[in-house]
């Protein structure tokens, strides 16, 4: 069975040494409390992830969810784990005190989230989906809706879902058919079918709060006619507790490739009572509040899975004896050398390590931006929001793409045993696969990045971010040992701006150029962003080593991993740069009918 140990040393490195979290918290109103509790949260979160969630991960995969007599049964131990999570006060940690939250910064929840995603992704999605619902209600709900639903979600006694997708539409939500008919008392009757709804039904909590996209009878066509509704599984009674059953049922469960422990439901709404969140036909804005939080959450899933896969493939590579090192035996007393001596096995391990640690730095940087948006002063909040908007599709798309690659490398380290279920490595790959799809596929994130976040504001936000990288390179380039990092980073950083302009010019002639470049552009951007964090981590490590730190091995490993990233992973930008500037012609030249000519007669 796979094991997991929360990487607390590295989380503390990123929080304390790389990103100055103590100062960051002190700069937030009421942030002092976060400084005081951060250690306890890390320690307790680690225990929960290691001792409660990890042992349930493989059980959840093997048992899956079942629909029996109209009830969704989750795997053994999932409900008890959820009760412990609620008793521990985890759902309320970063929520608004007015509705029962503890008011701690969101970044603390994001740190905990990495540990949950590493230890049991499928379980983590039950409380995870509540976050999107809470954030939509917090930002767009009336006080009455907040009192009724947000308080229960924050308490954890009710969980939430996001009901967007329908059989005929996922990406293009303007096509939804679910209807909401206004009633005299101000409520709505919601009818329609939603598919692929994560945590859509279960009995882990007393009630489920569905956030549902639907159309009013007179709604304009397309995405300008979408409204958002809260539709509970059980209608709140006079005391605000789960009362009568509403017209929402789980029609069936999907049989899927991974995350078996999470119930992915077809949800039928039959004249279900619902209440509008936000303004009529303005559901898209509320939906994006939900989705942006969820997109960063999915990026964390990608990184969390890399960490879990890495820890297990490392243990195996140290233990498994096969062949001798090419340069001569490294363990002559044994029948063969452990496979960790082989350069190719090290390539796979270091790829995982570099993406996990680099991804953690990116996520916790993003987490500070989230804190500033939520709690900072007006100016800080506005600036943070802009950079957060730019980085969100990178976090989502890049970390899930490399998450799938890295978990696959983890499997590969095990050789044929990686393909065998009992080792648990193939589960990480299967679980990671969905992260590239839901909350908007990689292709859609890429269009958001290049189209909306970069080109639509004439590269202004990108300029702000690349200026930050440029300043950093200038400041540290003369420091001993930094040239090897700042030279390639500053060259790429400049090229990023130049190539963006080039693509922008082509896009003015033909909009298809954006779609043709977008995914390579996103990967290219992701490698540079991680390169920025790896340069900073290398700088800290070199300083610590020069000072004669007692943790020499830790900092040397950090520096070695930075060098691996720069030597082996950052150069992938070359291929992406070539592809993203190759233009749309090679993609669009072929006639649609010609695609099938090799087999269609
Ligand atoms: C396990 C699981 C859990 C899920 N959980 C939820 C949930 O909780 N709530 C919810 O509402 N939904 C959920 N989803 C749905 C998920 O978000 C969608 O599947 C996803 O957004 C893609 O939509 P689709 O499947 O309809 O694909 P489509 O939209 O049909 O896309 C098919 C392909 O076309 C590409 N494509 C589409 N449009 C464009 C374009 N304009 N430009 C370029 N490429 C394009 C896509 O990238 C994709 O490769 C879940 C799905 C799964 C499988």
Report on the structure:
Helices cover 58% and strands 11% of the residues. It has 601 residues and is α+β, with helices and mostly antiparallel strands. Helix 6 runs antiparallel to helix 8, helix 8 (283-319) runs antiparallel to helix 9 (343-375) and helix 9 crosses helix 15 (512-547). Flavin-adenine dinucleotide binds next to strand 3, strand 5 and helix 12.
How much of the sequence lies in strands comes to 5-15%
| Helix proportion range | 55-70%
Rg result? 24 Å
Q: Residue ranges: pLDDT <50 for 5 or more in a row?
A: none
Helix and strand sequence: HHHEEHHHHEEEEEEEEEHHHHHHHHHHH
Alpha-beta classification: alpha+beta
Shape: globular
Q: What is the tally of helical segments?
A: 18
CA-CA gap between termini: 50 Å
**Mean pLDDT, all residues:** 96
- Report the bound ligands by name, code or SMILES: flavin-adenine dinucleotide
> What's the β-strand tally?
11
- Main beta sheet strand tally, sense and closure: 7 strands, mixed
How is the secondary structure organized here?
Layout: H1 8-18, H2 21-26, H3 31-63, E1 66-68, E2 71-73, H4 78-87, H5 106-119, H6 121-140, H7 143-155, E3 158-163, E4 179-182, E5 188-198, E6 207-214, E7 227-232, E8 234-236, E9 242-245, E10 248-253, E11 264-277, H8 283-319, H9 343-375, H10 378-413, H11 425-433, H12 442-454, H13 460-476, H14 483-509, H15 512-547, H16 552-569, H17 572-580, H18 585-588
Parallel strand pairs: 3-6
Antiparallel strand pairs: 1-2, 4-5, 5-11, 6-7, 7-11, 8-9, 10-11
The structure holds flavin-adenine dinucleotide.
Residues 162-165, 170-171, 196-198, 256, 264, 434, 437-441, 443-444, 447, 515 line the site of flavin-adenine dinucleotide.
